[in-house]
Amino acid sequence: MSSPDRSSAKRTAAGAKPVKTASVQTASVKATSIKAAPKASRKPSMTNEPSPQEKADFVKAMSKGIQPNTEAARKVDAKKRAAPEKSGEAETVKILRKIPAPQAVVSTAESDEALRVAAMIESALAAGDLNCLQPHAQQALIGALCRLYAANAEAGNRFPVVSGRTAVTATDVMVMCGALLKAVDLQVFELGMWQSWSNN
Amino acid sequence: MAEQFVGKSSEFKDGERQIIQIGKREIGVFRHEGEFYAYSNICLHQGGPACEGLTIANVEERLRPDKTSMGLFFSDKDMNFVCPWHGYEYDMKTGEHISDRSQKLRKYQVLTKGDDVYVVA
After folding, report:
1. Which chain A residue is nearest to residue B60, measuring alpha carbons?
2. Structural domains in chain B (count)
């Protein structure tokens, strides 16, 4: 059942060097030529052939595997430390999710003007100037903004009423909401009813 | 540590994020003001997806010369990202927890070679 390659290998291991009779030969022809060659032509191996005892030791060591605290174990550890990624499977990069950037702000001339007014109010507040806008101007601004925001919400264009970059406090909100409700003669109870009925 | 290709710089818009997996590690790669930052996507608090929440400007208190408060404002230059589970907030540039700087997410080096972006992991 042994293949020509195997028989050739066995003979080589036993010390019989195959004689090359032609540059291109099939394995079976090589095997035949070895059989046919006279014993005298088989030269003893000049390489450092291990002794039978060494071979047996080698086979035993192979079957045992690498023992701890040996030179072989130290070499394997050193290799693992040098290239930890290569010891396992090659790592691949997998993109799990892409999170887009927040939507860019679209600027218009009117919006820029409103931002300038807002910045002016903020800086005046920071300086402690509460009269930067007279009451009638504040009423006009608050009323117009209230109507604009409500119209947008009714049209389905909903967005947070104040942006992330604001210093509005909870107290500010309660004062303003209370004043707005009072201005149109509403109670908090009515606001709650309307919110629950309209799912707002 | 090997350089792992994560994408093209031209396809990575400013403000965008990618959550990538390299081996068993999950990493969030940010592009903020043209710079790339990469951190472990495991929150120090309870292991939530630290890099997948809001990005929000740092809140700072501004003081007058006499040290009285002008109120709390959002910073113009410092950006944080927030774990969506319980709100642990980390500095975008360092990965440090903003209220306890001794705690920080594992940071990965990001290299750009031409148009290619690599994470060293």
Report:
1. A167
2. 1
Q: Do A99 and B7 touch (CB under 8 A)?
A: no
Q: Are B21 and A96 in contact (CB under 8 A)?
A: yes
Whether residue A97 and residue B55 make contact (CB cut-off 8 A), yes or no, is no
- Strand arrangement, sheet containing B69-82: B55-63, B69-82, B89-91
User: Can you give the residue range of the structural domain that contains B107?
Assistant: 3-120
Task: Inform me whether the C-beta atom of residue B15 falls under 8 Å from chain A C-beta atoms.
Answer: yes
Q: pLDDT tens, A85-98?
A: 554 556 788 889 88
Q: What is the CATH number of the domain that holds B48?
A: 2.102.10.10
B65 touches chain A (CB under 8 A): no
For A133-189, what is each residue's pLDDT tens digit? 999 999 999 999 999 999 998 888 888 888 766 778 889 999 999 999 999 999 999
pLDDT digits (tens, 9 = 90+) for B20-64: 999 889 999 999 999 999 999 999 999 999 999 989 889 888 888
Give Cβ neighbours of residue B14 (< 8 Å, ≥ 6 apart).
Answer: A101, B31, B32, B33, B34
3-state helix, strand, coil in chain A (%, to 5): 60, 5, 40
